[in-house]
């Protein structure tokens, strides 16, 4: 997302000086620490395109903000989006203008969440366990073949395992035919994760993604199945005002993106953490901790989403000692809150899978918009990690971690590739 303003150095500013966000992002942890030290729990920022905003960095402040009754998700509370001060091709409009559960408030949100939530109850997710285990086994076979077929015995774990597992599960849930899956990942990554794209590229990707979602919905409308898309269409047609076409496509888009991009990053980040903290891997392999502990600590220590847009105060709010003006677009600083020493202790930078506070991290959100797919993400990640390291206990990074290319994003938080060796040389 290229800026419409003169480039400004992307360095943490002192108190009172907004931080200009680098659209290319990168590993967020050092930046988060510097911003917290300079600004406290809330920092003023300049979003790509020169748009003023804020990011909430502290755990307690973010928890309060996410559940505050006077904080909205509906972009009608963002004046700059409607008064002509923000260009129509501003790429972050893709987040603000989307219609669906994630940008709705009050009764609209409850209505949409009730329709979607039925597919993500603990009981419904548990019914998916055999399919998740079956897919995991198939993909591990494929990962093994990819490594065996490589001259140096190296395979990209993201490409062969961490991506196709959640992508297959969410597409089966939504009733998406296999031929669409590669393109859907490419488009969703460009729209949601890759924040360094140009406005024209981002808007083109948004249009194509919406069109493709409409095609998928039309297919399910013509040939309904036992899938979430068919159920949402049926709910709309039973009572026409329950789900508009825009809400249907927006909800499908949310389910697709949230259902695979975040779990892809979660699995990747957990594998990196365990490979570089073999003592913690030994704890879980020896039965002294659980794979759920690994998932919780990864969500806290290196969460899959860094700074997520947007929420808007409906009046001037004081959060963490800082006033956030009404209508300000605010980012939820999940990776920053995860390493907040004030909540997680002075060793918050350490990866420690038996940490008592790990299960209380905010990586899945908090309040009314808590991630409806959290139980499925936990199932997929814990199953993937258990089967992966049980089958390949000597799995290790094939490239030093410092040399792994980080996602070019201030929203997504992971690496672009994850080359691994499955066996000791």
TrEMBL record:
Signal peptide: none
Keywords per UniProt: Heme, Iron, Metal-binding, Monooxygenase, Oxidoreductase
Disordered as annotated region, ranges: 1-20
Claim: Transferase is one of the keywords in the record: no
Pfam families: p450
Entry superkingdom: Bacteria
Entry's family note: Belongs to the cytochrome P450 family.
Name of the protein described by the UniProt record: Cytochrome P450
Species this chain originates from: Streptomyces yangpuensis
